[in-house]
Design brief:
The chain has 473 residues and is α/β, with parallel strands linked by helices. The chain is 52% helix and 11% strand.
């Protein structure tokens, strides 16, 4: 009878759920027995139980009451294999998950000789009791190497506070944003390193958003989404870098949303970084953006003179080079960008002095930096490209991005995408988002169209070449 009851329930689930959801979350459930108004089912893990109760309790209730009446109740059994030793069957009662549920929470736990192998998207197996994985942290990105200044003092203080009580603080989630090269990744990883030092029992994981996206796609192809979700829900401190890479990745955002909710509700710490503030992120679901604002948003600013001086002195010390105060002052006064540019200036000074066997004097420093500035190409952004193209065709940016089929405007938009792909490191999706909110396929089509026109239309080719010169100028 229990098979018949469950088959009828499955028909309801199939009619009300996406095919992928139905397959992933209900395909591996087995009906065990029916006693009165109680249906007992076997689920592969406690994660299944938690997920079903959190997301599909009302659907389960509706289907079960249709089969067993208003007093219908659902009982779960979970196969486990504790330490590869057989134990007698026993029942445990789980605490409430925070919502009113119709099911009783009696879970029959019984041993299983052929437990499924542990899963990790990083290819490193762990255990369900203790996840032993590489946190993917760079030891060089510690707080001891993090130079504090007015530009990052708030972020550093918040990071140390989080490291003391990860998950149990008012800064959860922590969202760090800034322009490139200002220390987002360093700060995020420093927090993870400090947590591992102060709380070695915590499972910490740093992962780039692009890596998360790739792992999700692989899990879908291999039908391992359950294991993928379960893996990430076992993490105590999740650090996601470059969140902007998830823009317009609808399915990945949905997956991250579910993982985010589970971790946040379980008092697990979430740390995210991005090159833009949540309010400026395009291509993100509103419900995700609202959660990014739940905790603390920290912006890292461009370093001031004093902070730049500290960075230069630390870099010179690590390189084993003694420089005069005049040299430090000149570099700190003339290299006013990000931390990478400062460290690059010191490395260039050392390299040039070594090659020509000359002391690093203020005069030598001035000549090297002037040469660097002459050789350094202007940083070309998508916004800059749009301005150049609009100026050339005498268009406003609103006209460039407008939904129109006018030939001149379409060609201008295609050229903007073409040069954005040529001169920036932005992804196709990122280019499309910033130029008319198009998808990556449109950007590919635009680039192909421009190449074809340049090969067949002499006037168009001349226009494109003139615009390219203006962009490079």
């Amino acid at each position: 009878m229990h098979h018949k009851v469950w088959e009828n329930c499955l028909r309801v689930f199939k009619d009300n759920l996406d095919k992928s959801v139905y397959t992933y979350f209900f395909g591996r459930i087995k009906p065990i027995s029916v006693k009165g108004h109680v249906l007992t089912i076997e689920v592969p893990s406690q994660f299944y139980y938690d997920y079903l109760e959190a997301h599909y309790s009302e659907l389960l209730k509706m289907a079960l009451q249709r089969e067993l009446g208003a007093e219908a109740c659902l009982e779960y059994r979970i196969p486990i294999n504790p330490d590869n030793q057989r134990t007698k069957n026993h029942a445990i009662t789980l605490p409430p998950t925070g919502q009113e549920a119709y099911t009783n929470r009696s879970i029959d736990v019984f041993p299983q000789d052929n437990a499924p192998q542990d899963y990790s998207p990083f290819g490193v197996p762990g255990t369900l009791r203790r996840l032993n994985i590489d946190p993917q942290l760079n030891p060089a990105y510690s707080f001891s190497n993090f130079i504090e200044g007015d530009c990052n003092r708030l972020g550093r203080a918040a990071g140390l506070s989080i490291a003391e009580k990860p998950g149990n603080n008012t800064f959860n989630p922590l969202f760090i944003h800034s322009k490139p090269g200002l220390g987002k990744t360093h700060l995020a990883q420093a927090i993870g390193i400090q947590i591992k030092e102060w709380h070695p029992e915590k499972t910490v994981l740093y992962v780039n958003a692009s890596t998360f996206q790739d792992q999700f796609q692989t899990a879908k192809i291999k039908n391992e989404l359950i294991q993928f979700i379960h893996f990430y829900q076992l993490i105590d401190v999740l650090i996601i870098d470059d969140m902007e890479h998830l823009a317009n990745k609808v399915k990945t955002q949905k997956m991250f949303f579910d993982i985010f909710n589970y971790l946040q509700q379980s008092n697990k710490q979430i740390i995210m970084t991005s090159d833009k503030a949540p309010a400026e992120l395009e291509g993100m679901e509103d419900r995700l953006l609202s959660r990014f604002r739940w905790g603390l948003n920290v912006e890292l600013d461009t370093p001031d003179y004093e902070t730049r001086l500290k960075v230069l002195r630390q870099k010179a010390y690590k390189e084993g080079i003694a420089l005069s105060d005049e040299v430090f002052d000149y570099v700190a006064s003339n290299v006013t960008g990000n931390f990478r540019e400062l460290e690059g200036a010191i490395i260039s000074l050392i390299a040039n002095a070594t090659l020509v066997k000359q002391d690093i004097t203020p005069e030598f420093t001035k000549s090297v930096l002037e040469r660097l500035n002459r050789n350094r190409k202007q940083e070309i952004s998508i916004d800059y490209i749009k301005r150049v193209v609009c100026s050339y065709y005498n268009l406003s940016e609103e006209q460039l991005l407008a939904k129109t089929r006018k030939r001149e405007i379409v060609q201008a938009r295609y050229l903007s995408m073409y040069f954005a792909k040529m001169f920036t490191k932005c992804s196709l999706t990122g280019i499309g988002t910033q130029i008319g909110k198009k998808d990556h396929a449109t950007v590919l089509y635009a680039c192909k169209t421009v190449n074809n026109l340049m090969a067949t239309d002499k006037q168009f080719r001349m226009q494109a070449e003139e615009i390219e010169k203006k962009i490079k100028h």
